[in-house]
Amino acid sequence: MTVEHVWLGVGFLGQAFFSMRFLVQWIASERRKESVIPISFWFFSIGGGCTLLIYAIYRLDPVFILGQGAGLFVYLRNLYLIRRKERLTEART
Question: Which of 11, 23, 24, 49 would be a feasible disulfide site paired with 55, CB 3.0-4.6 Å?
Answer without folding.
Answer: 11
